[in-house]
Amino acid sequence: MSQIETVLGILIPFVGTTLGAACVFFMKMPLGNLVQRSLAGFAAGVMVAASIWSLLIPAIEQSTSMGRWSFFPALAGFWAGVLFLLILDHLIPHLHVGSDQSEGPKSTLSRTTMMVLAVTLHNIPEGMAVGVIYAGFLAGNMQITAASALVLSLGIAIQNFPEGAIISMPLRAEGASRRKAFAGGVLSGVVEPIGAVLTILASQLVIAALPYLLSFAAGAMLYVVVEELMPEVSQGRHSNLGTVFFAVGFSVMMALDVALG
Hints:
By secondary structure, this protein is mostly helical. Helices cover 77% and strands 0% of the residues.
């Protein structure tokens, strides 16, 4: 039963991305700036709450045997995750939605491809987060239950829905057909189940490293929030709208984790 729950849990976030990308078939107008900012704020709030309640706190709780040094695995893993995303950010050419300036090394890739790569970068730590928490569940870790793992999957799926729309709708506005825009949104989320499976396999080899891996995923997710999502939320007029939706996303994920986890 645990294996079936794990497979379903890994696929739930990908389903969220796919459903969001499918909006391109039902919406004719591209997402407005305020809508995109609100969705980015919501996604950021979910990711911050998930990083704290689902990843960092369990990482510290699992290291209580270290006494005063119980913070160390969380600290080391957190910084490893931040540095990992920092490196990827500089190695992979990508273009954020609404921006005309690409990031990473110079490339001849099309705007469409670089936009998909930008969202794919966001999804890498989310896939790792799902993978590592299900690895803990499969290992019989007392701090990680099937419910708490499912909560993380559902939370990421909820914020993946607007992310899928955020990538597919601009691709459509760039001139791509609805099918290609949908495919771009779906492809940006494929990295999540792949990353989750790879993380589970790695975790099973070194179960003792679970606290480090949990905090690694948290560091990577928070890097994405601060580096990519928060600037989008706060720029221009009406930045308070994005802040409010950040609080909404944070509250939803916090409530899910505490009530169901």
